[in-house]
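To whoever picks this up:

The parser on our side crashed when reading a file containing two proteins. I've narrowed it down to the boundary between the first structure block and the second sequence. Both blocks are reproduced below exactly, byte for byte. First block:
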Amino acid sequence: MYAAPQTPDGELLTVRPVGADTFRIEVGFRVPAALAPVVQGRERDLVFAARSRLARLGINVRPLSALAWDGPRLVLAAEVRALVRSYGVGPLLGGVLLPGLPVGRLVFCPPEHRLTAEQIDQAVQDNALQLPASYSIDHAGRFRIRPQGWTYALAEPLTAEALATIVARSDGKDVLNRIQVRRPVDRIVLPPGDGVITSCSMFLHEHYVVLESEAGPLGQHLDAVVLDPVATRGTNVFLEFFNHTGQRIVNPSVAASLYRGVETPALARRWWAIGADAPTREAEGPAAAARAAAEPGYAALAGLFDRLEEPCRERRYSHRLVAVVDDMEAVLAGAPPRAVWCRPPERSEPGPGADLSARCVAEAYEQPRALAHGTRVLGDVSPGARATLLLGYFPNLVEHTQICAAALEGKVARLIFRRASFEHGPFLSSRDHGRLADYEGLGVEVFWCNDEREHVVTHVFRGLRGYFVRPGEVERFRTSLVVAVYGSTRPLAGEQVERVRRLVENLNRFFGGNLAILTGGGPGAMQQATDIAHRLGIMVGASFIETVDQETNQTAEFYQTFQGRSRQARQRWFEIASFHLFFMGGVGTLEEVGLTLTDMKLGVIEVSPLVFFGRHDGDRYWQRLREQFEVMVAAGRAPPWLLSHTLMTDDPDEIPRTYKRMLELG
């Protein structure tokens, strides 16, 4: 995994108004223990990068002083100004500049990590990164970025409440993405004393970019100057300019430098030992490989579940295991857990709550009796114990509330479940996905002892969406560029399979070998794409839906499952994909086309090239759909990008060229 060496976001310490829309502030930065000794005496190599969401609103945070140590933290004086007149932020700015507000970070940019002109050019030729088409490189190793023909305006006037949400809440960027709309322009005009928000396309995999923020003849870039590896991928790489002169500037640009990211070791999440995560990279040598081979795997965990579930073998939902474990290694060796519950107490009269099904709990049906549940044993666990919880089934509503309460007290740090659902096998409900998000927010690790696949996987979020991933593949999952592949459960013909192979190979080469593909996980075209990707060494994911017409593939390195009633919710998990490819398909694929286009139209996902691939009876399979798109755009019922960003083809060599043209990449 590659990253820019940096501090967490610094917090605003003091605020003092000096004008109608200008403030002087002091910011404090906590320096991580691993970074502190590296930057001691090299504070000049630390670059302040203002928070992106502030800059996108035209709010600039400009350093006024050198960094100074104040005990274990670094302190910086800065000026805050609202620079884009049309956004109307100035009168509202004072209301959100409160102590504790995150305003930016410090990034370590050592000269020895800076690439030369020759190294930048070679990296571009090797597809180690993709820069905007209009870039140029000077002799000193700086390259100049010119924005694309877009500017960004607010779809509605900004209120004080919306501004506070955007700058202060964790999901504030989602609000900003919704109200900030992109508009095409023939040229970007920057009036005197005003700012403009624009963007370019760029894909960074192992490098980070530092933009220059000094005033120049082509404008001054705001102080959101660092573009990170992996996070910088796509068409909306924002650039924010201000005109400091008394004359208009047309088509501003910014100079930048490129730095090698710091390679950090991948850490495997281990279900048997809390706090014992350790590097598992092959570079550690034969000793590490031997240790990994000796570590307990699925068979050991499944055997433990079998042993603990032996007293409650009845096929009844009320007889489900809950066990609290302090020392997993000791329990694997035969020691008893701290507490075990697997069946409700005997009743003298029938109690409808005792055998309440998983579905009834999920639907929150009113019951005359309390549901019998095993998580009541958490009441006897000491706060701060950070125990592991073993569950025969993924938690229901009652169990979930008790687990969350225990997590808040530090009683539970890890959850391992064996079965996703009593009634739906390996498929999770929409409510289950919400509960997984709650566990992530509370810092509870989740593992699945998946009997169907005979492996143990951990739940990992990428952005807003979580997938189950093999522990050794977590960092690869987080950093790969994902391409979504949709298609029929019917297999493609021989010639089409070869074309798909060339297509996947071309894309992997185009993005420097950083590719992963995500399918619906079914047979036919999806399985063929999976097999091709694996032969090429490409990571594969699947988003499985409960259905009667397809078997799920067994080879995906990351996956998620959805019950049948969650069809549209499932599409949200394709948001991690940067690109979307539609192979020949039927009604189901057509539904996915509609959902993807709607997400782009509503700004849920970026507008990116859409490729419809395949040929049938001598014609391009999707050509009639293209004709319908033309009618919709001509009638004003669809946005123009529906034509400019759509390609109908069966030529695998045409697709990389089209990506470069549509994304305006060099």
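<<boundary where parser fails>>
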Amino acid sequence: MIRLGFFLKSFSVFFLFCVFVFLLFFIYYAKDLPRPEVFTEKDFVLPTKIYDREGKTLLYQIYDEEKRTVISLDQVSNNLKWAIIATEDSNFYHHFGLDLKGVARSIINNLTSGKWLATGGSTISQQLIRSTFLTLDKTVRRKAKEIILTLELERRYSKDQILEFYLNQIPLGSNAYGVEAASQVFFNKSASELSLAQAAAVASLIQAPSRLSPYGSRFDSLIARKNYVLNRMAQEGYISQEEAEQAKKETLVFASPDQSIKAPHFVLYVKKYLEENYSDYFLKEKGLKVYTTLDWGLQQEAEKIVQEGVKSNEGYGAYNASLVALNPQTGEILALVGSADWYATSSYPEGCPGTEEGCLFDPKFDIATLGERQPGSAFKPFAYAEAFKKGLTPETVFWDTKTEFNPNCASTAVEEKDQYGLDCYHPANYDGKFRGPMSLRNALAQSINIPAVKVLYLAGVKDTIETAKSFGITTLNQPLSWYGLSLVLGGGEVKLLDLTSAYGVFANNGLKSPPVAILKITDSEGNIIEENKKTPQRVLEENIANMINSILSDNEAKVPIFGRYSILNIPGYQVAVKTGTTQEFKDGWTIGYTPSIAVGAWVGNNNGGLMNKEPGVVLAGPIWNKFITKALEAYPSNKTFQEPDLSKNENPLLRGEADLNKDDSQYSNWQAGRDAWQAPK
């Protein structure tokens, strides 16, 4: 009895001594420790995220070394939470920060292995403290600090808060930190959408992110660990063994590491704007959210249709294509495909025409926003618009007849140079025919060249260039002497995005809404720091826009060249459209619009290689037709173009009331006949 009392007394003294030592230990190490509440103050390094217009599809992240998206616990699927708890800390909701059973098990394992601190019984709380505040050194000092901070962490926060901190903090490989970033990187989906097998795979990566990487050489080890996680979930009662076995059979398809960018050319267009307006540090670390104008559904359709079109055009020697779609009312870019295949190899098929070196090209080059190509007849509407401003009308009659535009050359146009060594200029029509007198409506609708050159002559090259620039064409910057009458046939280079947006001015009744790629930008807290609130500006009189719209949407006027049921006709809709083909067939274009959407398609070769002799309507037309037909399902046009008012023009000649019974020989030489057709200034 005395011995038992002595033992109890000695044990009490020893216990009190241990408590005293622990308190001293606690005080000694705690004085220099960080405050656990830093979790609620922690300024994570957050990348800039670029989304589609709905904010649902992540297109790209601009990050430094960490990909991270902070989410709340209720945004994590139960599958993923259970998978992590089952394998990392099955007693998480029942311990006080330290799992004594786990510690005991760890001590036994360490003693058995003969290596002190070789293995640990760390809880989720301990792992969180270790990854946030401490080094990974396995020392008694570090372990003591870890225990102290863990106890304080558990005292201050609820279990759900601690789990949320953990799920946003853990490294999971491929620069992904936190379960949301990992879910996006490995499966292109949110952490709330993971299947059971996918959740188990993400949980597996916690043990060894690099060694178990799905992109490494130990893929089998990852699958084995995933199956182990599923078994643990079944053992802990989170799922049935049958569910575990079913999930083991699921084939996991990991996103390719080089496919982490969606709508690549559009994203790089947005990224360029961001880099020009925000610092590199701000973009990589402050968690901006960029909500773009892109309609992800339309973008996917555009990419598919462009790739199918290029495949069909290979027989014509055209190995690339580009497409732009925007809302002419707002300028918002809805879809943008800069090149047919971002992931293509770096050359065309062997022996394609145009170069002697295999037609090398860069498949990542963005024709839509960077490429400057001749638009062919797609430039004509700007010259017509300028001429209409000066008094001509769609019903004005011009003669389509063989014409020499250099007054120093004979009208028969036999010679190629005049007496001063300057080129003679006598363009022909696409089909080599001349049609005699025809209205400007028919001339533009059928894309007849001779009347178009006469229109530019009367409108003036300088004024036409200024009109095109006011519409948003940014590339006509050569000295005026560089341009000639061939400008109306595509003698100046343009960008597809500029050209499509410029056609949007006609669609918007003369109001210009420049291309816009960003709706708004918010900071990590959701505060708006930039928002698009641009208003349209009038650059063309509404009635002039009505004239162009009336002509380009007049299917009857197009019939003699394109046929009644051509690729340019969209049943059920009034669509204005113009094609273009450059000299020597290097580029093919189709640009068309309704009041609700403008679409431009380009076909050709990046290096300017020649295509087979087919016009833009044959090569670019089908791509344009398929896309705008699809786009009109999402952006239907309930409006029709307003008919122009021609009553203000009292000149009968300009209203098409000319005497067409005259001998047309007087019009065969433009220099002699120009005064009769001269529009008023």
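After patching the parser it read the second block fine. The first strand starts at residue 48 and ends at 51. Residues 89 and 123 are 5 Å apart (CA to CA).
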